[in-house]
Structure formats: C-alpha cells, structure tokens
Amino acid sequence: MTDTPAPRLTIALAGMAERLDQLTPETLPPLPGVVWHLFIQGPADRVAAARPRLTAEGRRRDIRLSALESRGVARSRNAALAAVETELLLFADDDLTFHPAGIAALIDRFNRLPGADLLCARLTDETGRPRKRYVPDGTPLRWFNCGRVGTPELALRPARCARRGAL
C-alpha cells in the first residue's frame, strides 16, 4: 500500500444547481495533489442527488461538494476560503474547461516562487487562445493592472494571505 501525499491544491469551483448536469467526473480530471471542491448554489437536495454521480459512487475522493443556500459568486468564494485545507487555492467557475497541463504549470510556478502568495493564471478559449490581452508573463500585480483580473484567474496561498490580513 503506497501512501498518497496530501493534496496541495484545491480547485474551488463555483456553480449553480441548475447547471450540475454539465459537470461530470470527466470534466474534473483526477490530478496528483489536487482536490476539486464544488460550491453549488441552490437546493441542497439537488446537490445531494448529484453527489454519487460526480464522485463516481464514492470512488473519486478528490471531488467534494458543498451546497450553499445563499446566492452570489462572492459567497461561493468566501465559502471556499473558509473551507480550504490545502496550501494552494485556485478559484474556478462551472463553465470552464480544465487542462491538466495548465494546472500542473500553476503548481510548478508556485514551487518556483516560494515567496508568492498570489498568482494570476491565464484563461484560454476553446481554441487555446487567451480570452483577453494579458500583461507579459512574470509581471508583478500592481494597483493599475489588477482591475482586469477575474476571480477564476486567481490562485493563492490562503493561509499566508490570511496571516497578512489580506483575506
């Protein structure tokens, strides 16, 4: 029996109960060191009904679901911040496609930048092109360039951000 290392990254996916059918275990690929935590807004019974399908009848221990009674994407993000147990957190939405190589590159970037508390990822469209114009790779986040960053582009070390009073 091999010991599986504890996950390092939580992908906190905000979603609506009405769109649960579009999510499948295949759209949430199993990745080493990654846990998927779905924060679903809507009736708890719909989330409970989807749990067996999304977790492949319990075989996918890397997929967790939380039902949220409240509405609003900020509430999902706050729930993720309160629930995260991993060193790293990536915010996501239920209408995104996830590429294992991109997620691995994000973890690698955190490994190469141990002092970084916050990194901004880049979203691409279905053709692989960036969804918007991004600043050059490695550009520090500043007052004048942070306004264009969307929440699904944010990855952070939540415990360190909390200790600094940034959460």
Helices, strands, pairings?
Layout: E1 9-16, E2 34-41, H1 44-54, E3 63-68, H2 73-83, E4 88-93, H3 100-112, E5 118-120, E6 154-156, H4 158-163
Parallel strand pairs: 1-2, 1-4, 2-3
Antiparallel strand pairs: 4-6, 5-6
How would you summarize what this structure contains?
The protein contains 4 helices and 6 strands, in the order ββαβαβαββα. With 167 residues, the chain is an alpha/beta fold.
Q: What this model shows, in words?
A:
With 167 residues, this protein is of the alpha/beta class. Helices cover 25% and strands 20% of the residues. The protein is built from 4 helices and 6 strands; from the N terminus they run E-E-H-E-H-E-H-E-E-H. A 6-stranded mixed beta sheet has the order 3-2-1-4-6-5, sandwiched between helices. Helix 1 (44-54) links the parallel strand 2 (34-41) and strand 3.
Q: What proportion strand? A: 15-25%
Query: In DSSP terms, counting alpha (H) and pi (I) runs of 4 or more, how many helices?
Result: 4
Mean pLDDT: 88
Count of DSSP E strands?
6
Q: Give the distance, in angstroms, between the N- and C-terminal Cα atoms.
A: 39 Å
Helix content: 10-25%
Succession of helices and strands: EEHEHEHEEH
- Overall 3D form: globular
Instruction: Catalogue the unreliable spans.
Output: none
Q: C-alpha Rg, in Å?
A: 16 Å
Summarize the biggest pleated sheet.
6 strands, mixed
Biggest sheet: strand arrangement: 3-2-1-4-6-5
Structural class: alpha/beta
Key traits:
6-stranded mixed β-sheet; 167 residues; alpha/beta
